[in-house]
């Protein structure tokens, strides 16, 4: 049985953290831009914006957790939760600063955590085949 190389593990952790940061920033920017363009072009009522925020949370957490756990074989579910934690922190801080509806933040937190579970299950099923 070969020795475990700790230098390889350090590089894997750094790559994992970079995947989390880059995919979170890019997906938030992309989905917010697309949904704001849709709202602008279709002249949708501003009351619907909070529901678009839920869609942004869902899509962003799915993308981030699916991309970030790509290089791992084991412990995909906890790694998926860890990968959406920076985005979850961003959503909670945004709620504290803006003071939106409490029900919406609870829905967003549940959606983010549920999508992390769904993306980890998708990743596990893909590795079993």
What does this protein look like?
It is a single chain. With 129 residues, the protein is an all-alpha fold. Helix content is 83%, strand content 0%. The protein contains four helices and no strands. It is elongated and about 50 Å long. The mean pLDDT is 86.
Topology of this protein?
Blueprint: H1 6-42, H2 49-68, H3 76-98, H4 102-128
List keywords for this structure.
129 residues; mainly alpha
The radius of gyration computed from the alpha-carbon positions, rounded to a whole number of angstroms, is 17 Å
The total count of helices amounts to: 4
Largest sheet: none
Strand percentage lies at under 5%
Helix content: over 70%
The arrangement of helices and strands along the chain is HHHH
Low-confidence segments: none
Structural class: mainly alpha
The average pLDDT score comes to 86
**How far from one another are the termini?**
26 Å
How many strand elements? Answer: 0
Shape: elongated
């Amino acid at each position: 049985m070969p020795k475990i190389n700790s230098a390889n593990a350090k590089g894997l952790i750094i790559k994992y953290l970079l995947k989390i940061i880059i995919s979170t920033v890019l997906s938030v920017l992309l989905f917010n831009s697309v949904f704001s363009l849709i709202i602008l072009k279709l002249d949708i009522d501003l009351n619907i914006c909070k529901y678009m925020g839920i869609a942004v949370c869902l899509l962003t957490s799915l993308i981030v957790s699916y991309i970030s756990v790509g290089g791992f074989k084991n412990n995909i579910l906890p790694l998926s939760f860890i990968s959406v934690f920076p985005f979850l922190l961003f959503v909670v801080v945004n709620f504290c600063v803006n003071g939106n509806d409490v029900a919406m933040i609870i829905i967003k937190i549940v959606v983010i955590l549920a999508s992390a579970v769904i993306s980890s299950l998708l990743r596990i099923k893909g590795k079993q085949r």
